[in-house]
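User: Round two. Same drill as before: sequence, then structure, for each protein.

Assistant: Same drill it is. First protein:
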Amino acid sequence: MKIVVVGGSGHIGTFLVPRLVRAGHEVVNITRGTRTAYADAPEWQQVRPVVADREQEDRDGTFGDRVAALQADVVIDLVCFTLESATALVNRLRGQTAHLVHCGSIWRYGPSRKLPIAEGSDSAAAPVDEYGIQKDRIARMLKDETASGGLVTTSLHPGHIVGPGWHPTGPLGNLDPAVWRTLSAGDPLVMPGSGAELMHHVHADDVAQAFEQAVTHRSAAAGEDFNIVAPTALTVRGYAEIAAGWFGRTATLKSVGWDEFRRSTTPENADSSWGHLHRSQCFTIEKARTHLGYTPRYEPEQAIHESIHWLLEHHQLTLPTPLLNTP
């Protein structure tokens, strides 16, 4: 099949595009052209690049025309963030493209009510920020589109994506490298809340696997949405303890209130921690397993360990203690 990937040079596309080429598909990657994939692979030599500024072309009303002109069997949209943008693309592809696969986010769900959170259930509250609100609206629009007999669509909702080439969401729910220095040194780590809050990571290659499976199993995926995460989730305390063990340390955690925590870090780090931890999310992947045959290879700690190893190896993170070779 001919597959157009929109935004294929990012976290997911780094792994997805080579997968699609290996499966025998003709792949076109629409990208802004400002960066390359996080990891090189020989399959990229077989990919046709198309440079486009999606935001500008959405404003001009021309992006849908660009995608439609490529006459793809499948369009995989990895970088759509507003209902307006998604609707414009659907309207242009309706009747022309066989399948649109959209990348959503687990932040379409708000704070957890019951665990694990399942698709279409009352397991979580409504989304709490504009990003999550837009992702939820897009997913609902796509489901309605397919149910009404229009374009065949599928929405996949990844968790906190982890992989070689970028910093993982850390034990405190932020990207602060000081957290890793503290754990690796065996120093006390100031932790907001009880430490029982949950985060659900997923390796980028497992997300890529899910997208490939959605393309392969179009009938089962049609009109559906899926949580795409690792088999298990991590608590703040458990994550910190596991990570400290990678350096031969035992985590020493100091639980404080949110006001005190905010005083101990930057506003950006504090807001990120709050965004992740007050949701305290854990998801079931049973629907993706059953419908798509989704079989994640990585537990969250394995994916995170791989990411930290890459950062150290490429001198993008400096720590006082060496990282052990096993997670």
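Second protein:
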Amino acid sequence: MYYENYHLGINIIWWALWVILLIWILGFPYNTSRRHKRYTASDILQKRYFSGDITIYEYYDKQKNLNEEGELKKT
């Protein structure tokens, strides 16, 4: 009796779900800037100092070398 349009209703729901999923995937581009961040020499030097790989004297010495070589921008 009421089963004639049953498949049509389910079909519309599935199509709506696929359309919403497709809009969601294409509408929100994947953020790749976080994954491919390039670290500068200063960032790496600072990370090594904070992790305890180098001492404060080595840090300042290497920082001075980077400034002399023009690796760091003067702000």
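Helices lie at 6-27, 41-51, 56-69.

User: Perfect.
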